[in-house]
Amino acid sequence: MSQRTLHSLFKPTSVAIIGASNSEKRAGNVLMKNLLSSGFSGPIMPVTPKYRAVMGVLAYPNIEALPIKPDLAVICTRASRVPAIVETLAQFGCKVAIIMASGMAQEMNEDGVSLLNLAMQHAKRYGMRILGPNSLGMLLPPLGLNASLAHASALPGKIAFVSQSAAICTTVLDWANNKGIGFSSFISLGDATDINFDELLDFLGRDSRTSAIMLYIDSVNEKRHFLSAARAASRNKPILVIKSGRSAEGVRAAKLHTGGIGGNDAVYEAAFRRAGMLRVNDLIELFAAVESLAHSNPLQGERLGIISNGGGPAVLAVDELILRGGKLAELSQETIAKLDAVLPNTWSKQNPVDIIGDANASRYASALNILMDSEELDAILVLHSPSALGESVEIADALIKVIHAHPKKNRLNILTNWSGEDSAYQARKRFTKGGISTYRTPEGAVGAFMHMVEYRRNQKLLQEVPQSIPDNIPTDSQTARKLLQAAQAKGKAVLETHEASPILRAYGLNTIDTWFVKDADEAVVIANEAGYPLALKVQSPNILHKSDVHGVMLNLTSAEDIRHAANAITQRVHQANPDAIIEGMIVQKMALTAGAQEIRVAVISDPVFGPAICLGEGGSEWDPTQDAAVALPPLNMALARYMVIQALKTHKLKDRHLPLGLDMNALCVMLTQISHIIIDCPEIASLDLNPVLAAGENITLLDVNIRLHDANTDNTSRLAIMPYPKELEEFAELKNGLKVMLRPILPEDEPKHLAFDNSLSDEDRYKRYFGVRSKMTHEEMAVLTQIDYAREMAFIATAKGPDGDDITLGAVRASIDPDNTEAEFAMAVRGDHQGIGLGKLLLEKLIKYYQANDTPVLTGFTMFENRNMASLAKSLGFKVTFDMEEHLIKMHMDLKAPNANKSQ
């Protein structure tokens, strides 16, 4: 991947059209028309041997005849000609090509190689990038570039739209033009064989012309790159996603459409949520969201005020708001008094402000002005229903005037709903032209507002500081993996409760006392030793759900009960499945279920995103992706809490308010430990805990099923999100004998990292931040501590303080560009721990990390005043230069050089 080559995609200075044509309805003709009519200022160069000129523009007979190397080429020919054209363009020096042809993956050459693979081989050999194939093209309105087959041009604006579907592109474009909504870029990915969502998200997330991003996704290929790019971009601007394939049939259709991998919709939902993106379910919701994004300000809070000329629409709006978890603003007595002065006595005296059906422009304007003046609202929704007295357009004009004149216009969000068709159309057009969001229905307007609220909530949740798991809970990955690998060596594919118990105990998870016996006699021996009551269950590799074949008997209180149960279970299993192999029986202590609640937890393996954790209530017909909340590992306590809240909110998990029922902290500890098991143990393919008995602080796993990967399976990249790299922890000793731990930073470090940052002297802060700056906010600290280990690294040095707690003494961090071509570092050490080798240890660790990461270059900048930093860098092998104009010292290391990280 290379962001530098995308520069030619987003800022081309010249375009060649391969296969340009004068024939109507040919792709090469439509491309030429669109390019010539859009106002692109660079050279437009048609390439065709058929014509001397295309649409009046001098044509070139072949690519080699072009007078300059085009930044962008659009290939409009049939599929069979594309590989040779790509090779010639790449050799000629073209940077990016858009391929319109479809079916290239299915069509083969005489050697049995698909045309798509052949074209990609040529492009990669010469470093050329490909958009498509099967692409509609792209529109860049700020450049006046329409290199697409679209039926219309796009207006300039600040929304970027990226889609795998050409039909969705044209639909959205048509709607946006009607609403007067513009775009910074409009890109059809097609089959996304080369340029994909992750690279575009990286570019658009940094693009100053783009304030919001919309995606239409059929499938995702590079899971880790996609989530890393989405997470980085969503920190800066909202990302809205519409994803096809919500049903099994839809997944199959999407797979046929783009050839991508068909993943589970619930896991996609979890991935979007984890990256801070907002999902919409259909085009209507998407259009409403676009409307709000095009005209909204950053939301300062969630309190919504409503003005209406009718009670019914206002009630519909309130219902939608409350059902979606929104907040209705409460008006102060002062605000109500101000409204009393301008509205009839019959007005509602509360929010919603119902200003009665014959409300005129003056009343609407006065009410809006008063609400905008108040401090009790963060957004205002103005509703209007058709009235016999008319004034629909007059009211709209008055409101537009109030909004534009008000000092809070850039802080408050104003949404409007003018219901009706003919009587409301002109008013809605006025609002659109005035840059004010407008909707056809009250529910649509509230839905758009809630998208803004949900984006704000997502960002806050993702910045929440997680608490640490209690110290007394073990995490013994060495024991767990040893047991799992021993099972693999024996050829085992499934581990049941009695075999899985020691693995789970290594992570502090409790299972009910369980024994495996071969027959009824052994069961009686165990029963007499363990005590009654007991449960007896069949053990068979052919039976997934024991209860389906009545293979479970409970509350057995004597040896006679045990023998009778064993015989009855065996008979029932053979009746249900004559071929079932019965290996023996499972004997379990009966769990004390009074006052407790049964839940179910599973870990499934999604074909796109890998392991996913599911939480619900279970049952034999349980579908984890339909009946459970889903989250991607790694989980910490904050993310686990968010998962439990999601499960309760969506009724996948019900708090039955039993005396010893659900305890939030205990559930979060269990889910976090399960996440640790999945991260630490690549041998595990899936995990099913059914049921799990939640009795307040005590959580007991009653039945466990662990399925194992084959011992030869490569699972190194199975996780969609790179977990905390525990293997990078190490201890070191400083010159004064102090023992410190060097390790990657964790989200849980935020309070101590804030204390570390506040401990820096004014001089050190000045050197660190290149100037005077105030104390870090929580939001800034979250960015520094909740890092994406796939994109950046921060090492901290900690030591035990006088009270036994860890104290952060120093930190070094660096982030890499998406191409992994260069990392830029920064470092700080507490003033009372400088000069004892701590800075050297941290920087050496960072150098080794990026060398192992195959990053070619490590750079850093410091101020002239920070000569100690420059001396340290030079001693470790950095090339140090002085920028006299910027008053900066630049430190540069070629990490691939033989002498990298060698003390001078």
Report the count of strand segments: 40
Mean pLDDT: 91
* Shape label: globular
Poorly predicted runs of 5 or more residues: none
**What Rg, in angstroms, do the CA atoms define?**
32 Å
Q: How many strands, which pairing sense, and closed or not: the largest β-sheet? A: 8 strands, mixed
Q: In DSSP terms, counting alpha (H) and pi (I) runs of 4 or more, how many helices?
A: 27
Question: Hey, roughly how much beta strand do the residues contain?
Answer: 15-25%
- Our measurement of the CA-to-CA distance between the termini, rounded to an integer number of angstroms, reads 35 Å
Q: Class by helix and strand content? A: alpha/beta
- Helix fraction by DSSP (H/I, runs of at least 4): 25-40%
Write a brief caption for the model.
It is built from 27 helices and 40 strands. By secondary structure, the chain is of the alpha/beta class.
Give a verbal description of the structure.
This protein has 904 residues and is an alpha/beta fold. It has 27 helices and 40 strands. The strands form 7 sheets. Strands 21, 22, 27, 28, 29, 30, 31 and 32 form an 8-stranded mixed sheet that branches. The protein has an 8-stranded mixed sheet with strand order 33-34-35-36-37-38-40-39, with helices on both faces. Strands 9-8-11-10-12-13-14 form a 7-stranded mixed sheet, with helices on both faces. Helix 5 (166-179) links the parallel strand 10 and strand 11. Helix 6 (197-206) runs parallel beside helix 7. It starts with a helix and ends in a 10-residue tail after the last strand. The model has no long low-confidence stretch (mean pLDDT 91).
